[in-house]
Fold this protein.
Amino acid sequence: MTSSASRNRPQIPVLSTGGTISCIHSPDGDLVPSLTCADIIGQAHIPQEVEPVAHDIMSIDSSSITLPQIDELIGHINSFCSPAPIGIVVLHGTDTMEESAVAAACALRLPCPVVFTGAQRPGDDAAPDGPANLSRALAALATGELDPGVHIVFGDSIVAARGAYKAHTTADTAFRNALADSNVAQDSASRPFRSSGAPNPPRIAGLFVPIITTFAGDGGQLLRALHERDTKEGTVDGLVLAALGSGNIPTAVAEELAAWRASRHALNRADLPVVVCSRVPTGGVSFVYGGTGGGAQLARDGLRSGGALRPSQARIELLYELAATPPSGR
């Protein structure tokens, strides 16, 4: 029976998607998502001021999450926003937490905080970190310390979703924020995509925006393969370049990209939107170097800066921008 005290506590929806926080070891020793959301809540210390309510959304390794599943997750978060709770918690694997978190920030106009959290060690570990992370997430919502928007609560840190990236594969405090670490001004080319706030969030399933990471001696072969696919099928909607240094690419890559964009013009197709990020974890893009492939020339050619965003998040923002653009405009 539910006590009157329990009925008077604000409820916080907890949405479970799987990930390490839901894993236990299989007989073979592999980590497999197995715990339900209620199981995970049962392991955590719950602040007495709130009542978490379990919702099992999916049970996957986040490395396998697809764009349709991100759409599904965003739809579930949106459904719990009216009437607005004091907050929502999403349990998510760390491999792609930065992408799903920024997707929620792009897709939704949130009336309350949404907190993503998870774990580095499974539920049957001798010292699992997931219960403490969930407790900290619930406490942050109970005390009202978070503004509306999307946050990642993990270990002893709270970081904004936009700019977040996984900085360590196994450390308890795994996430940092590239925007905060870089301490660079946000320029007009890297302003965040904002949803219109429509009742139905934009859907990104069906769009194709790959990330190409360049490297010393890159002859443009990967870019050429995408170019050929796009020419035959017209299936590339945009591109993110993980460039060198402050936003530069090898000459051969720049020439291949120029040929691709020229071929789209020859076919009377819309420009290929290209966002340039850096493969360097922090510091951001500065389009200052000249020459073919230099950032200054890329900017003159109409390529856009991803600012200090990691390529993974710049891709999600570009996907939402494309989802909000009529097909005729692409």
